[in-house]
Amino acid sequence: MTIKAKLNELETRKAKALAMGGPEKLSRRRAEGNLNARERIDKLLDAGTYVESGLFATSHLPEAREKTPADGKIAGFGKIEGRPVALVSNDMTVMGASSSVVNGKKIRHMREVATRSGMPLVFLGESTGARMPDRMGAQGRAILGQDPAEYQRMRQSPWVSALLGSCYGSSTWYACMSDFVVMRKGAQMAVASSRVTSMAINQPVDAEELGGWKLHSETTGLVDVVVDSDEKAIETIKRYLSYLPSHNNEAAPVHDVPAGADEAGKRILDIVPADGSKVYDVRKVVEAIADPGSVFELKARFGKSLSTSLIRLNGRTVGVLANNPMFKGGAIDVDACNKATSFLVFCDSFNIPIVFLVDQPGFLIGLEGERRAAPSKIINWMNALSLVTVPKISVIMRKSYGQAYLNMGGGRNSDEVICWPTADLGFMAPEVSVNVLFGVKKEEDPARYEELLQQVTRDTSAWNLAALYETQDVIDPSDTRSCLISMLDVHRKRMGSEVGRHLLSNWPTSY
Predict the structure, then answer these.
(1) Bridge-based pairing state of the strands 83-90 and 73-80
(2) Regarding predicted confidence, which is higher, 277 or 163?
(3) pLDDT beyond 50 at 106
(4) How confident is the model at residue 434 (pLDDT cuts 50, 70, 90)?
(5) pLDDT tens digits along 376-426
(6) What whole-number distance in Å separates Cα of residue 435 and Cα of residue 420?
(7) Is 300 in contact with 276 (CB distance < 8 Å)?
(8) Alpha-helix runs per DSSP H in 350-403
(9) In whole angstroms, what is the distance from residue 431 CA to residue 419 CA?
């Protein structure tokens, strides 16, 4: 065969692979308003930067080779805003993007290269699960477990998953191992499909109830952001990665600071009432402190009494963990504990300093919390906090009661503790403590109640904490942004580096 003939064969094989599952399946996806696997790659990556790996891969089974172009999982490398990434995009038009021997090798190669080369790994998920011919019988068992590091996360570089359709099998597993998950409304993620689950338990199962966006953004907390379309999911991935370093041995990128960045912070007292019994949305405080337009909230629908966000302060990435009195009065429940722990692990793994904005009446106690192992979740949080090696600054705005004072960075659990003059450092709400400690109710003995109320609040102000040097400063709330910028600048470079020790890098990726 001449070289020309061989080159012709190359073009023929390339065209077949690029045709994916064929024009009929591709047109059906277009009619449904869904991007195909290659269109998703084109929208994610900078133009002209994509380099494919495994274009000519097919099923290892002879009978399936001709109908498995690229074997249903498209993999390769490219750039997002000039920075290298590795990716896997599942092709539902080829055997439902089912997991096979060959495409499993592709995923392994992407993981290994991303780790060695220090680049984020992006999974554009949509799959039907395991490919049954590959997994059946003794031979099927023999192909499993050949990669002992398949489910290992050491967080050397960021992993991102997008759930863009029916996601079972590998799409589920990799989402649960990822640092960030974005889900399109209408997509599902579960161990197995509603049809398989229905057969297994012998009762009808609704796909949305089994694994829809509301379940995973509001109940399980496995999804960070919910969007309406593939395009929005891809935009969200790009924005998320802009806050992160490419790998754990470098600092996050520094961005330009917008003009007028200090103005909103001067109006912070218009947001937070001095009266600790009045509620407000702490996300407005985060917006006021951050560089304009830089707030990126994670898990907004889950554990809502605690808000977790990536922001930029003076152009630099910072993680903000803030109590939100708008929900449950800011009381911390089990979901909020899990949310806080996962956020601390994430920030420490990728060299992102942490700011606590504190206004909490303690942990939400009750039967439900105890049944869900609330004490263990509280101590998980403390365990993670004790292992964090990035800078931590705690700002006590109003209430900081009980054990949660420590969880929110009080004492030596932060590098700096800053108070507003409105800080209240009691063990519990004063009105409650009078009843608990002395058995006196206001309606029964108003005079005695007022006397005891003054007694239990005597030493709970910011000034008493400052006198003991348990807070390093008491500041005007309108100076919070400038104070944080200054303090983070003091602590950011430790021994000449902005890279932490990553003691939490192998912490579980879900809880």
Answers:
(1) antiparallel
(2) 163
(3) yes
(4) very low
(5) 999 999 999 999 999 999 999 999 999 999 999 999 999 999 999 999 987
(6) 28
(7) no
(8) 367-371, 374-387
(9) 22
Q: What is the pLDDT of residues 229-281, one digit of tens each?
A: 999 999 999 999 999 999 999 999 999 999 999 999 999 999 999 898 899 99
State the number of CA atoms in the 13 A half-sphere of 419 facing the CB. Answer: 25
pLDDT tens-digit map of 135-160:
776 776 667 777 888 899 999 999 99
Amino acid letter for position 431? E
Q: In the structure, what pLDDT confidence band is assigned to residue 197 with cuts at 50, 70 and 90?
A: confident
Q: Which of 47-56, 197-206, 231-240 has the lowest mean pLDDT?
A: 197-206
Output the CA torsion sign for 363, 369, 373, 377.
negative
Rounded distance between C-alpha atoms, residue 480 and residue 457, angstroms: 25
* Contact (CB, 8 A) for 387 and 413: no
Pick the closest to residue 498 from 350, 294, 394 (CA basis): 350
Q: Which class would CATH give 264-425+460-492? A: alpha beta
150 token code pair: 């398949």
Share of the chain residues as helix, strand and coil, in percent rounded to the nearest 5: 40, 20, 40
Strands (E), 93-191: 121-128, 159-168, 180-184, 188-189
- Residue 389 CA, distance from chain mean position: 19
C-alpha–C-alpha distance, residues 234 and 236, integer Å: 5
Distance CA 194, CA 189 (A): 10
The values of phi and psi at residue 152, to 5°, are -95, 130
Tell me the CATH number of domain 3-133+151-241, given options 2.60.120.430, 1.20.1050.10, 3.90.226.10, 1.10.600.10.
Answer: 3.90.226.10
Q: Which among 377, 418, 412, 416 has a CA at the least distance from the CA of 397?
A: 418
Give the end-to-end CA distance of the chain in Å, rounded to a whole number: 59
Tokens read off for 399 = 């209430």
Q: Quick one: 341 exposed, middle or buried, by C-beta within 10 A (0-12, 13-18, 19+)?
A: buried
Query: Is 3-133+151-241's fold the same as 264-425+460-492's?
Result: yes
Contacts of 194 (CB under 8 A, 6+ apart): 188, 205, 206, 207, 210, 211
Alpha carbons within 13 angstroms on the beta-carbon side of residue 488 total 27
Q: Domain ranges in the chain?
A: 3-133+151-241, 264-425+460-492
- Rounded Cα distance, 81 and 372, in Å: 43
Of 254-268, 320-334, 428-442, 474-488, minimum mean pLDDT range:
428-442
Backbone angles phi, psi at 60, to 5 degrees: -75, -10
The alpha carbon of residue 289 and the mean position of all alpha carbons in its chain are separated, in whole angstroms, by: 21
Write the single-letter amino acid at 317.
T
Going by DSSP bridges, is the β-strand pair 316-323/306-313 parallel, antiparallel, or unpaired?
antiparallel
Q: Is 149 helix (H, G, I), strand (E, B) or coil?
A: coil
